[in-house]
Automatic annotation (TrEMBL):
Its cofactor is Zn(2+). Signal peptide: none annotated. Pfam families: ADH_N, ADH_zinc_N. Residues 177-304 form the Alcohol dehydrogenase-like C-terminal domain. Residues 24-130 form the Alcohol dehydrogenase-like N-terminal domain. This is Threonine dehydrogenase-like Zn-dependent dehydrogenase. Keywords: Oxidoreductase. It comes from Nesterenkonia sandarakina. Coiled coil: none annotated. GO terms for molecular function: oxidoreductase activity.
């Protein structure tokens, strides 16, 4: 099979590899779609170092068909099914796992840098992941849309942590692909007032189509306009979906008392210091949290929304390239003109 092997930063080759033998309980997926995410770009460039060991095969947002299994599949799955893959394997016994925070387990293994990922024709799924339910059936969904379930689930986890599904008003700062996914989810979950901020008119128009009622370019008047839109209350939930601290600070004055803010994006190392008034946090009981990855239950829930059509995501993958063009796909994703770039193998 063809695999895009990353031997070190900026050193990726496409190589013909043997398909690994399947141990009892393992299964093999034929990749139908693998998406390039910001994390892949950071791994490729060598700026994400944590838990990355070379050589590695990237690709953690993916869907494939079950090509083969060594032993019975979990109930409800058969060879040939299209599955979206929950890409992490938590340890199950650390303090995070025991508290139900398995998505931030420090011992977790992740497809796409610790377990070979989906920038390949096939992905080998270990028995433990098959047994744990990491393969989620999504027959009938377009493969690219099935692969979007992973980042959508991360957005859903973040929205839950700030109680956004029950919010009166939600502010999403940054309308790249993840910002748009937050807006679509919030809209599908019934959030009435959604505000989107981004400097790009094109992205704001996408945000409006995704369910934002008020779209604003960043600027001196943005916070005031948000207050007017919310009848002076401000927003009670805010997501920072772009890794810039200056995309955070101007909106603190648009928060309502008791508001919850999620720092969803990763911030560049060295440029991640926030200026927040401690007294503002104190007197307003603001909650400032982060979110990372998602739970399997989030993944299953979002997969059901995509499968039953509650959530429309068919337009989020704007370019698809062949596995041989994996480097070009990473560069295209970095250029930022696409929402998501997909990689697939010629069938
Ligand atoms: Zn990702
Ligand atoms: Zn754990």
């Amino acid at each position: 099979m063809k695999q895009a092997i990353l031997n070190g930063p900026l050193d990726m080759i496409i190589k013909e590899q043997e398909i690994p033998p399947l141990e009892p309980g393992d299964c093999l997926l034929r990749v139908q779609s693998a998406l390039v995410c910001g994390t892949d770009i950071r791994i490729y460039e060598g700026t994400k170092k944590k838990n990355v060991t070379y050589p590695t095969v990237m690709g953690h947002e993916f869907a494939g068909t079950i090509a083969e299994s060594n032993g019975p599949l979990p109930h409800g799955l058969v060879v040939g099914d299209l599955v979206a893959v929950y890409p992490i394997m938590p340890c199950g016994h650390c303090s995070a796992c025991v508290r139900g925070r398995e998505n931030i387990c420090r011992n977790r293994l992740a497809f796409g840098y610790q377990i070979p990922g989906a920038f390949a024709e096939y992905v080998h799924v270990p028995a433990a992941a098959v047994r744990a339910g990491n393969l989620v059936k999504v027959n009938g969904v377009r493969p690219n849309s099935a692969a979007v379930i992973e980042p959508l689930s991360c957005a859903y986890n973040g929205l839950k942590l700030i109680d956004a599904p029950a919010a009166h008003a939600l502010l999403v700062v940054g309308c790249g692909p993840l910002g748009l996914m937050h807006i679509r989810l919030a809209s599908a979950l019934g959030v009435k007032k959604i505000v989107a901020v981004d400097p790009s008119a094109q992205r704001l128009s996408a945000a409006a189509k995704s369910g934002a009622q008020l779209t604003l370019a960043p600027g001196d008047t943005a916070a005031r306009e948000i207050l007017e839109f919310t009848d002076g209350d401000g927003v009670d939930a805010m997501v920072v979906a772009v890794g810039r601290t200056d995309a955070f600070e101007p909106y603190l004055e648009a928060l309502s008392p008791g508001a919850k803010v999620n720092l969803f994006a990763g911030f560049p190392t060295g440029k991640d210091v926030l200026a927040v008034s401690a007294n503002d946090v104190h007197y307003n009981e603001y909650s400032l949290i982060g979110s990372s990855s998602c739970h399997l239950s989030d993944f299953e829930f979002v997969a059901s929304m995509v499968t039953d059509g509650t959530l429309q995501v068919d337009d989020l993958v704007t370019t698809t390239m062949e596995i041989e063009e994996a480097v070009a796909a990473l560069e295209a994703a970095k250029a930022g003109d696409d929402l998501r770039v997909g990689i697939t193998a010629r069938s």
